[in-house]
Structures are given as C-alpha cells and as structure tokens.
Amino acid sequence: VSVLQRIGCPGDHLFLFNHILRCPAGISEWACPFIQIKVLDNPSGVFHFMQSLALLMSPVKNRVDFVCHMKPTERKSSSSSGKESGNWTLVDEGGEEDEDPETSWILLLEDDLIALLSQFPFHELFQQFLGFKSGG
C-alpha cells in the first residue's frame, strides 16, 4: 500500500480503494489511512476525487463474491445476558424486517462509510473550484 500511495498513479489508488470496499465490515479501524486523495497541486485531482466519490456512493460490484467465504460464525456474548447487544433490527409499520438477517453481515457498517467519507478532502475541492490559495 505504501509503495502504491507514494509512486502510484490515480489508477493504482482506485485499485486500492476498490479492494478496500470489498473487505469485510470493520474497515474503519484499519483501512482509512490507505485512502489518500489530493486535489490541490494535482492535475487530475478533481477527476480522481469525483471517481473515488462515485465508487463510494455506488453499490460495490461483486462484493458478495469476495466476502462470501468470510461469513462470521455465530457467537454468544457472555456479557449480554442472552440477547445480542449492539444489533438493531429495523421493522416497517407492518412488522416486517427491513433487512435479511442472512445477508446483512455482507454490508459495510455505517462507521465504515463515515470513516471512508471523512478521507475525502472537500475543503481542497472547494479551494480548487473557487480559486482560493491555501494561505487565504
């Protein structure tokens, strides 16, 4: 990752980002520093920013195929007194579950998406669009 970040082209950075998006949930703990997008002093910075943002906001193709072999095992927590703490079930007004419990583990967590989105330098993008210099 370090070599691709240092000397790689924007295509290499997108390659890394695609692989990170196909990792199991919990990437906010370790993968966020691997996403580095520079807009200022980069001729293709805005294009790279927009491509990466489009990747993050669109469904990840073939993610199920990548993580299907990593299904977590069912485990009981001894401190939760019989119920799993931290798991929420969303139901609609008819009492039907919104998500399929068999496939919900495949999705990225909300924390993962927020952490990845925080790696995008929106302030640099606006500086580039508005023509501001970094010194003010």
Description:
It is a single chain. This protein has 136 residues and is mainly α. It has one domain. The chain contains 6 helices and no strands. Helix 2 runs parallel beside helix 3. It is globular, with a radius of gyration of 19 Å. The two termini are 33 Å apart. About 8% of the residues have low confidence.
- Helix segment count? 6
Tell me the count of domains: 1
Taken in chain order, the helices and strands follow as: HHHHHH
Distance from first to last alpha carbon: 33 Å
Radius of gyration: 19 Å
- Molecular shape: globular
For the largest beta-sheet, the strand count, sense and barrel status come to: none
Strand content: under 5%
Low-pLDDT sequence parts: 75-85
Q: How many beta-strand runs?
A: 0
- Percent range of helical residues: 25-40%
List keywords for this structure.
6 helices; globular; mainly alpha; 39% helix; 0% strand; 136 residues; single chain
Task: Offer a concise description of the structure.
This protein has 136 residues and is an all-alpha fold.
What is the secondary structure topology, with strand pairs?
Layout (H helix, E strand, L loop, with lengths): L1 H6 L2 H12 L23 H13 L5 H5 L42 H8 L4 H9 L6
